[in-house]
Amino acid sequence: MKKLLTAGLATSAFALSLGLTWASAQESVSVSAADKRSNLWFVELSGKPTTDGGSVSHLAAEKSAFRNAASAARVEYSIRRSYNVLFNGFSVEAGPKALEAISRLPGVKAVYPVEIVSLPPEDRMVGGEVPELSTAIAMTGADIVQDLLGFDGTGVKVAVMDTGIDYDHPDLGGCFGPGCRVAFGTDFVGDDFNADPTSPSFNPVPVPDDDPDDCNGHGTHVSGIVGASGDVTGVAPGVTFGAYRVFGCEGSTTSEIMISAMEAALADGADVLNMSIGSAFQWPQYPTAQAASRLVSQGVVVVTSIGNNGTSGLYAAGAPGVGKNVIGTASFDNTHVTLSTFTVSPDDTVIGYTPATAAAPTPTSGTEQLARTGTTTTANDGCNAVAPPAGSLTDRVALIRRGTCSFFEKALNAQTAGAIGVVLYNNAAGFVNPTVAGATPITIPVVAVTAAEGALLDGRIEAGDTFLTWTDQRASFPNPTGGTISGFSSYGLAADLSFKPDIASPGGSIFSTYPIESGEYATISGTSMASPHVAGVAALLLEKQPTLKPAIVAARLQNSADPKNWWGNPSLGFLDNAHRQGAGMVDAPGAVLATAHVTPSDLGLGESSGGPATRTLTISNRSPLPQIYDLSAEAALATGPSTFAPSFLDAPATVEFSSASVVVPARSSASFDVTITPNAGLLDRSIYGGYIKLTPQLGGSVLRVPFAGFVGDYQGSIQVLTPTANNFPWLAKLEGPNFVNQPAGASYTLAGGDNPFFLAHFDHQSRRLKFEVWSTSGRFMGYFEDNHYMPRNSGASSFFAFEWDGTTSRGAVPDGTYVVRISVLKALGNVWDPAHNEFWVAPPVTIDRP
Prior knowledge:
Layout: H1 13-18, E1 28-30, E2 40-45, H2 56-72, E3 77-83, E4 89-94, H3 96-103, E5 108-113, E6 116-118, E7 125-126, H4 134-140, H5 142-149, E8 157-162, E9 182-187, H6 218-227, E10 240-245, E11 252-254, H7 255-267, E12 272-275, H8 287-297, E13 301-305, E14 327-333, E15 336-344, E16 349-355, E17 367-372, E18 396-401, H9 407-416, E19 421-425, E20 446-449, H10 451-463, E21 467-478, E22 503-508, E23 510-513, E24 521-524, H11 527-544, H12 550-560, H13 578-581, H14 588-593, E25 596-599, E26 603-607, E27 613-621, E28 627-639, E29 648-649, E30 654-657, E31 661-664, E32 668-677, E33 687-696, E34 703-710, H15 714-717, E35 730-735, E36 738-741, E37 746-748, E38 757-760, E39 766-775, E40 780-790, E41 800-803, E42 807-808, E43 811-812, E44 816-826, E45 837-841, E46 845-847
Parallel strand pairs: 8-10, 8-12, 9-10, 12-13, 13-14, 14-22, 17-18, 18-19, 19-20, 26-34, 37-46
Antiparallel strand pairs: 1-36, 2-4, 2-5, 3-4, 6-11, 7-24, 15-16, 15-21, 16-20, 17-21, 23-24, 25-27, 27-32, 28-29, 28-31, 28-33, 30-32, 33-34, 35-36, 35-38, 38-41, 39-40, 39-44, 42-43, 44-45, 44-46
Helix pairs in contact: 6-11, 7-8
């Protein structure tokens, strides 16, 4: 048993017998700081779904037995959806008491929360007269496959699970149904659906129709990347689309709807499924990841975004992308960006900008004078400490440097000083996509430019009067961060230490199709934009070889990919983390032309506490000639022990081979062993990685296999329940917008929202989480939470809030004083090993109903 908090006084005899005590801490935290949790649940039954060999009759009998057992136990719940094909079970709505009873019914394998799945925030720029996707396609060589090799994805059916597709768009075919580019699909939700309970437009009841059209834009943009054909040319402009609409016009969907859409895509005969959505910090065992993995086993190539949580640190990869054999895709920044423009005097230099969200619309004409908010760099930050005086910016467009305070504060100060617009400039390389949302509306246009352009404008203002002229034109500009990993792209590994992400492609600043009524074209950034690029390359490969199994498609993509240098300083020559870029940039011609592949196509080496990792790799040669491959390794940067603030280390692993080279006969295969030992200088909890490189002696393409592993004892070195600055866990009361700490215990009426809350920060994913309720005399009263495969928190200070309504798996507890114990089994932990478990006992909880 592991003690987490040891300061303070114990006030329960039972707690004293456990040797656990409590600590005082910060008094309150905002409710809004808590990571949201769903009140809906997946119930997984023990039988195999049909894709794993289960029979329909057995599954029906199992579900009937579950309903009968639940009825006999008088469980109050409602079934929302039932699954047989890719997942065996239900999604249900159930209170804590019912959920605990359900988890203990015969035939129940596990329960999981139904995640509320949001579209990632978009760096979106809409409209334009110069639509082009060519620079991103050139980065991967998809243009070469189209123009020189003659493949465009014709005959390949690509399903897009998203917000629908604007099939009226001429670049996407202009119609829906047989004979159209968008030939099949299903609307699962309708326009008004929104599963986000915090949204003003919350409407969790799906009302689907027969039309999977897109009133949001995300799905149309994604589809254009896959295969637009017109003013925009996608990666595979000959594919046939299926549109699976799981979002309304705005807001969120649920993971339960995603599984229904996956089952429909399978039934409709999709060859490739793209899912540019997901739930961060998840496990391969999460239901959407399980369903996606089974979809792959049925012959569908499944490509997903790995997530936009790059600022959230390690182990942030999302489901379904973490699923086994699912291609989870990371993002690189595009080499060029198509932007709206203004010009500046005296020579009408063209400047590209990104408009800020929550600001007034940007003009398309008019000339205004530029001015700074101050004469020094610090003063030009425009923050409260050096706010420009009232009237000092009247009828001027203010030039303000990024840094020190929020974009909202800068814009508001400029607006208050009389400015009629704001140009923000970055303080680091690359583009910035700001929001100026805040308590006071920003009623003037706000745009952002690069650091270099900001310095140019600053110099011109210094030299004399400078004027800005708004235009209705767009232009393409070099991207300072082009070809490096996007800052938003999520890190792996997966929670079970499997290798994720799998591969990467351009996703930062991608110009593609958009609904006609919303501007026709738009530039958006995200791993959402990277995933369809890989899906398009998979379609090119399948056009050439339609019988390829998904695992070989993945191997061909990964083996031929090109790892890129570290984003922090590419000129140093260090390869970026394998657990962030995966196999590297997808190489379309390399994948299509390859005559050999290596399996497994990536290596998740697990923890190093057991010593070096040895794996066997097999080279399959499809060519009519034998080949000899020389074996070597390329190091990628490691990351240090910190999950939320990764450090980057040049610490190459030692890689040894069973032979220096391998001879592979024609149309045959050969195997070799590789033994990998992490660098001795790395601290426990570091993640290391690199690439096995196979160089053909007789000419041809280099093949690579990425690898990554964890340094040390995975279960022993990672603490899940960590205090943070708030000294969590807490027993808390909800008072208005805040949770208030109750370090000495508290009494609750269970009426009018007066329920006990337990606040805990999870530094890492956990295999199982239980909340046990005990009387002060040591009598076990039951559980009120028992969750499998828990995600971690999104940030170093965020937390989960667990509410108890006074019921447990054994029923309602009588009035009295109780001890609640949190029990955590670590990721990949053994429940019988004390070092793999963590416990925390809350201060005494007194139930005193009115």
